[in-house]
Design goal:
single chain; alpha+beta; 40% helix; binds flavin mononucleotide
Length: 205
């Protein structure tokens, strides 16, 4: 199969966080979400095996509970930083309970205590799948945001989702169809500036 590199690069480069321009009223097909998760599980995985588990929430009651938790955590973060909540965060937080679906990327297992190699192996076996999931959503014109702040309240999330002991939440993706959003490349330092050749610090091309 001939791969359209431009299209692939476009998906990879425009998987922006979308919190506002989302269609909160249009349901997202469960099969589409499963298709995206099927893409996600093609991600690289370490020796520990395929310990990823995905909890998709589209029932109003748990969505409401998660939304309350999310708001509490975010409000606390902004308060601790002495900042007002940014409009983009307000937009999502205010309607999170209405989001058509939430996908929780979880692990059936816990990170090892040792650092850092064990940690790298543990998270390296789940976060690539989360990123692939975000890209698969982007490719289908579904809007989402990489959110990890719920991990601050693991026990509460576990209770709401019925997650057993020994499991971990990493990222939660709120998912909706895009509504009036134009997703563009972000402003990032170019490769030549952040890439060293042969030795750290040598970045002249
Ligand atoms: C590790 C990590 C955790 C994040 N957690 C949250 C979060 O909890 N809530 C949120 O709204 N955005 C979260 N984000 C999204 C960032 O805020 C977002 O990437 C940033 O606003 C830049 O936007 P862009 O990704 O569209 O360039 C997170 C991103 C990363 C990489």
């Amino acid at each position: 199969m001939q791969i359209d590199v431009d299209q692939v690069d476009e998906v990879l480069s425009t998987a922006r966080s979308v919190r506002k321009n989302l269609d909160f009223d249009r349901p997202v097909d469960r099969q589409v979400l499963l298709d995206c998760i099927d893409v996600a599980v093609q991600a690289p995985v370490g020796l520990g095996g395929e310990n990823w588990r995905f909890v998709v929430v589209d029932d109003p009651a748990p969505k409401q509970e998660i939304a309350v938790l999310y708001r509490e955590i975010l409000e606390r973060i902004f308060k601790e930083r002495g900042m007002d909540m940014k409009p983009t965060h307000k937009a999502l937080t205010g309607r999170l309970h209405e989001i058509p679906a939430m996908i929780f990327v979880c692990v059936d297992g816990l990170p090892p205590d040792e650092a850092p190699a064990g940690q790298i192996g543990f998270y390296g076996s789940i976060l690539p799948a989360a990123w692939s999931l975000m890209l698969a959503l982007r490719a289908r014109n579904l809007g989402t945001t990489w959110t990890s702040l719920l991990s601050a309240r693991q026990d509460d999330v576990a209770k709401i989702l019925g997650m057993p002991d020994g499991t971990l939440l990493t990222v939660m993706f709120p998912v909706a169809h895009l509504k009036g959003a134009t997703l563009r490349r972000a402003k990032r330092d170019p490769a030549a500036q952040v890439t060293f050749w042969n030795r750290w610090g040598e970045n002249s091309v």
